[in-house]
Amino acid sequence: MKKLLAAFLFFSVSFVAQAQTRGLPDFTELVEKQGAAVVNISTTQIVRSNARGAQVFPFDDDDPMADLFRRFMPNPHGGLGSPGGAREFESRSLGSGFIVSADGYILTNAHVVDSADEIAVKLTDKREFKARVIGADKRTDVALIKIDAGGLPVVRLGDPNALRVGEWVVAIGSPFGFENSVTAGIVSAKGRSLPQENLVPFIQTDVAINPGNSGGPLFNMKGEVVGINSQIYSRSGGFMGISFAIPIDVAMDVQAQLKSTGKVSRGRLGVVIQEVSKDLAESFGLSKAQGAAVSAVEKGGPADKAGIEAGDVILKFEGRPVINSGDLPRVVGSVKPGTRVTVQVWRKGAARDIAVTVGETTEEKVAVRSGRKGAQADSPNNRYGLGVSELTPEQRRELKIGGGLLVEEVRGNLARADLRPGDILLAIIARGVTTELKTVDQFNKLLGQLERNAGITLLVRRGELQTFVTIKPPAERKND
After folding, report:
1. Which carries the bigger pLDDT value, residue 192 or residue 195?
2. Which of 141, 338, 325 lies closest to 247, judged by CA?
3. According to DSSP H, which parts of 156-294 are helical?
C-alpha cells in the first residue's frame, strides 16, 4: 500500500511539474540559433589628467562602473605623476551589439562608442576584431560600426509594430562584462516617449538590462530582432524592472543613412506643438482629443511659408494620423528634407489640407509646460480670476507683437491652469473660433458672450515659447 501511495505521489508531482513547464516559454532554440550574431563590444578611451597631475574621474558617483574604477585605479581624485606633469590613462567600458550584414556591419548604441579611441569586437567563437565607427546618431542613440570580416552570422529582423503588450521577449548581451548572458521578460508597453526623447517610440519591457547590455538585441519569440536595448529607469544604477529598447525599424532607417552618408538628415516643419487635451479639443470644436496643437510657428520656416498658423491642430501628416503630439516629430523627422507633403489641419471648425515642403533640422521644438504657480490676487476684472492690462506701445515693440494682454493678477485655483503674472494672452479660442486679443474691453466682451460656466482656451506667450492653456470659472456655491 505504501509503495502504491509513493508511486501515486511521484506521478502526481511529475504531472504537475510537466503541466507547469508546458505553460512557460522555451528560449533554448532561439538562443542557439541567434546567439552567434550577438557580439561583445569593449571600448578604450584615452583620458588625460590636468596640468597639475590630477586625474579626470570618468564616472559619476552613482555610476555602477565607478566602484570598479576605484578598485583598479588608486587615488581616483589624486595625481598620477609628479606635480605639474600631465599624464594619460586608459578608460575602458563595455557594451553589446549585433551583426546586421555578413560583411561585418554591426548595430549598437551611440553612447557605447561615444568618444572611443579604440573599439574591440569579440564574437561568440572567441575571434576578436578592431572596429571603426561608420556613423552615430545621438538623438536616437544608434551607431553603426564595421569590422573587417566575412561570412558572419546575421540576425533576422522582425516587425516591432506587430509586438503585443504582454508577449515574451528575450535580450542577449554582456551585462557587467558577462558575455552572452540571456535574460527574458515581457513587453510592458509600446510607443513610450521619454523626456528629451521625442523621436523614438520606445518599447518598454521588464527584461533585466544592466550596464553592458546597451546596444544588444531584443528578440521576439520567433527569433527576430525587434529592438535595441538602450536604457533603463533606475535609482540605483542597476536594473529595477523597467527597461527601454529602440524599435528596430527606427534603428534600421538610421543605419541606412549612416551607411550611405555617415550622418542622419531629418525633416522639419518649424512649429512649436503641444498635446491636445480634452479641454483643448472642446475649445477647438474637435470631437475627440487627438492631434498636435500648433502654439507657435517659426517665422520664415516651412510651416509658415505653407500657411500653417498658430491655433491650427495637425491631424494628419502625409496621410498618417497624428494621434498624440509626440507622433508628429517622429513622422516629420522620417521624411527626407525637400519632400513636398500634405498636412491636414483643423482650423475654425473644419479640416483642411495644406501642402508643405519639409525643411531640414536635427530638432523639433515642443512646448514645455511649467509646474510653477502664479501669484494669487483678490481683485480680478473677470469671473475667470484673471486681472489683465493692455500692453504699452514700447512693450509691443520689444516683444515684436501687434497685440495681446498682460496678465497682472491670477486668483485662487486659476494658478493650477499654469497662468502667472507676466504672461501675455495673445488669443482666445472658444466654440472653435480663434480671436486675437487687443484690448481689455474686447476681452471682457468676449467673456460676457459665453455661457456662465463655459471653459475657454487661451494662447499664451511666456518668454520665447507659446502654449495653449484651458481655464474654467470656479464652481459657484449654492446656498443651503
Report:
1. 192
2. 141
3. 248-261, 278-284
Q: What per-residue confidence (pLDDT) applies to 29?
A: 94
Q: Give the amino acid at 263.
A: K
Among 413, 404, 418, residue whose Cα is nearest residue 384: 413
Q: Give me the pLDDT at residue 355, please.
A: 95
- Closest to 322 measured CA to CA, from 364, 265, 371: 364
Bridge partners for 173 per DSSP? 181
Least Cα distance to 264 among 107, 145, 147, 139 occurs for: 139
Element (H, E) at 78: none
> Euclidean distance between the first and final Cα of the chain, in Å?
81
Dihedral-angle region of residue 257 (phi above 0 means left; psi in -120 to 50 means alpha; beta otherwise): alpha
Run of H or E including 433: strand 433-436
Contact 121, 131 (CB under 8 A): yes
Other beta carbons within 10 Å of 430? 21
Cα distance between residue 416 and residue 427, in whole Å? 20
Q: Give the chain's mean pLDDT.
A: 80
- Pairing relationship of beta strands 88-99 and 105-108 according to DSSP bridges: antiparallel
Instruction: Give the mean model confidence (pLDDT) for residues 330-348.
Output: 91
pLDDT in tens, 221-244: 999 999 999 988 766 666 788 999
Above 70 in pLDDT, residue 22?
A: no
CA-to-CA distance for 439 and 146, rounded, in angstroms? 64
Q: Return the active site residues.
A: 111, 141, 214
Residue 150, classed as helix, strand or coil, is coil
User: What residues contact residue 100 under an 8 Å CB cut-off, 6+ apart?
Assistant: 106, 107, 154, 155, 157, 252, 255
Average of pLDDT values for 306-322?
Answer: 93
Residues in the chain: 480
Q: Are 131 and 240 a contacting pair, CB within 8 Å?
A: no
The three grid cell numbers given for residue 279, joined into one nine-digit string: 479641454
Helices (H) and strands (E) in the chain, counts: 10, 27
* Residue 113: strand, helix, or coil: helix
Pairwise CA distance, residues 291 & 300, whole Å: 23
CB of 469 closer than 8 Å to CB of 426: no
